[in-house]
Design goal:
- The structure is a homodimer.
- The first copy, chain A, is α+β, with helices and mostly antiparallel strands and about 400 residues long.
- Chain A folds into two domains: about 80 residues, SH3 type barrels, CATH 2.30.30; about 280 residues, Fumarylacetoacetase-like, C-terminal domain (Fumarylacetoacetate hydrolase, domain 2, Alpha-Beta Complex).
- In chain A, about 15% of the residues lie in helices and about 30% in strands.
- The termini of chain A are far apart.
- Chains A and B meet through β7, β10, β11, α5 and α6 of A and β7, β10, α5, α6 and α7 of B.
Chain lengths: ~400, ~400
């Protein structure tokens, strides 16, 4: 029986001892590395004496940056020690459990480069049909490489941060006009936080050594701005105003029981994209719009794994550094209730989505709150949690 | 008569006392902030006593990061004091001049987000004609907004760094193949290093307070990789392997006499893109391919100024931070000898470029060296220099 007295800290719950995600919480002594146990944060600085000197240095830092840089052996040692500590009947001396409701979680790491992929075939086909109705929904390169682009790392914000409606240009019959976006959307995604030594040409086999952990992502998107700006160099202002990430990073190690093959592309893969271990992940997402569950996308259907994405991203010789971050792209399934964006759920704004209470919506209204949660199967029938990513839309500012 | 005895330190030379660009050089005591005077570096740490306490703290740092964050008033004070010191007949106590040839210059700042624009109409039209011959060369959005995209900040390297030929997928009639790029190219650009307080919705009038200085840029581009990957989300691996920047950042203040209007777009501009001061810059670039001058692009013809680019980049609410960096896009003029990429000079590889000695080239061969230099008019008939950006192609690695 663990010393942690929290009914949410159980193996059949997302944040039991099988999960142990890392975050950074504000305390009276400043930002502190913590692990989430059930509905509590366990700050690690007060129990630093429980760790080896090497690990103590990592857990007493003010962000996860040193831990990300430390690499896989340190990640495994720390996780093993934490499992012992949270499963122990006796509390470590000095341990303090803080209810999450009394905790302010911070963005837990310094984001280097941010790449957003586009690896759901259903999403890519839906968007193709909506944006380019006169063309084949899937472009010829899509089944051969994980299409992706760089996003703005400086506007990645932690779950709970309000998002101000962006301004921008949108096209009208009388030419472009400027104003607050009128088609503000979400993208439900899964993100991967990089760590370990700086590397280039990371193989699919080595990819797991360069990924510290996994988070939920909401890649807010202004569809009107995006549709006008995106040719020929891709999305820019339609995406760059904000990307929200979950406050707690679930270690990749927690997903051992969630590994699945990625779907076959229907033709041979180029060698560098072949996986010798499966790194598709059986993650189930849920998207709540003002409290109404509007979509349940399954990540297992994604056409490229994070290992393939990382191999692709670095195969040209580009380096990956600790703190670099990449996201899967919108997760959409074949069915309507599995679509991971409101663009798709409303089919370009043509079909409204009914919220509890009967309200009809297409895109986001000021004051709307979106929450995305996710879980995956854990070992021995347990469940692995990915912390929610939540955000509320504020009116466009002055 | 200045104490600096260097014939290149003269007002009719690019690196006289009217220019004074900042860099960071390796010394026995580690990386040191320096200014360039003629063909010498003047490290500032040894003469820190010559500055106020506030400025001394900035010039004794190991990178330009604190100076970038300090903002316009500090930039102006420091420059004014440096002008006094370098024009003085007596050397400051402890001053050491190091010949540039004996100096190793480092990337002088930590790059935050990197945005690459596409603001030369001639370049955009040329690329449109080459890549999309069946369509109008200029897409409809181009004259209404400065099209741009995020690049990879982690692979920005300082002038003099070798560039390894990237690997990637390219299209063939039998489907995509993987290998070293066979159409490796340059893009001659001008880049802008951001500083001052974190800001959003920076107006064109305020933009100069958020730009510390100006550098030459070579945005290396693998055209075969790019052509296959870039739809619909823009360039990724075709660009992300390396972007080279000049080692010395010329302060924006040095360009007061180089300001020119940007060309009229032929229709009214949206308000946020209107300039009340001209921030087009009369910069002249030269591109040398293995020593042969192959192009002389003029920056004055660019359709968007850095002030318009920064206003656009932040108008949606995105923040700009010290260390963020943005580049103009390839600078090409109306004439063939003004094209800023080999894609254009060789018209998609169809026309070869003759180098001194008679060698015929289209794209880059291993061992090739490209040097881009630039100058602008300075006050009273002087000339302002932008330090060269140089890079040599290494064969694709193992």
């Amino acid at each position: 029986m663990s010393w942690i007295d929290d009914p949410a800290f159980a193996e059949d719950k997302p944040f039991g001892p099988q999960t142990l995600p890392y975050g950074v919480v504000e305390t009276a002594n400043g930002p502190t590395v913590a692990v989430r146990v059930g509905d509590h944060a366990l700050p690690l600085r007060p129990i630093a004496d429980e760790f080896t000197a090497e690990l103590a240095e990592l857990v007493t830092a003010r962000s996860l940056d040193p831990l990300l840089a430390a690499g896989r052996p340190a990640w495994s040692s720390l996780r093993a020690r934490l499992v012992e500590l949270v499963r122990s009947p006796a509390a470590p001396e000095g341990a303090v459990l803080v209810p999450l409701s009394e905790t302010r979680a911070l963005l837990p790491f310094t984001v280097g480069d941010y790449v957003d992929f586009y690896s759901s075939r259903h999403h890519a086909e839906n968007v193709g049909r909506i944006f380019r109705p006169d063309q084949a929904p899937l472009l010829p390169n899509w089944t051969h490489l994980p299409v992706g682009y760089h996003g703005r790392s400086g506007t990645i914000v932690v779950s709970g941060t309000d998002v101000e409606r962006p301004y921008g240009q949108r096209k009208t019959d009388d030419g472009p006009v400027f104003g607050p976006s009128v088609r503000l959307d979400i993208e439900a995604e899964i993100g991967f936080v990089c760590g370990g030594p700086v590397a280039r040409r990371v193989s699919t086999s080595a990819a797991a050594d360069h990924v510290f952990g996994v988070v939920t992502v909401n890649d807010w998107s202004a569809r009107d701005i995006q549709a006008w700006e995106y040719v020929p160099l891709g999305p820019h202002l339609g995406k760059s105003f904000a990307t929200s990430v979950g406050a707690w990073i679930t270690p990749l190690e927690a997903f051992a029981a969630a590994r699945v093959p990625v779907p076959d592309p229907g033709h041979p893969r180029l060698d560098y994209l072949v996986e010798d271990v499966h790194w598709g992940l059986d993650i189930h997402l849920e998207v709540f719009w003002n409290g109404t569950l509007v979509s349940k996308p399954d990540f297992a259907g994604m056409s490229y794994s994070f290992a393939q994405q990382l191999a692709h991203m670095t195969v040209n010789g580009a380096t990956v550094r600790p703190g670099d971050f990449f996201a899967s792209g919108t997760v959409s399934g074949p069915d309507k209730h599995q679509r991971g964006s409101f663009l798709e759920l409303s089919w370009g704004g043509k079909e409204s989505v009914e919220l509890d209470g009967g309200e009809q919506r297409t895109f986001l209204a000021d004051g709307d709150t979106v929450v995305i949660t996710a879980t995956a199967p854990g070992p021995d029938g347990s469940v692995i949690g990915l912390a929610e990513v939540a955000g509320t839309i504020r009116a466009a500012g002055d």
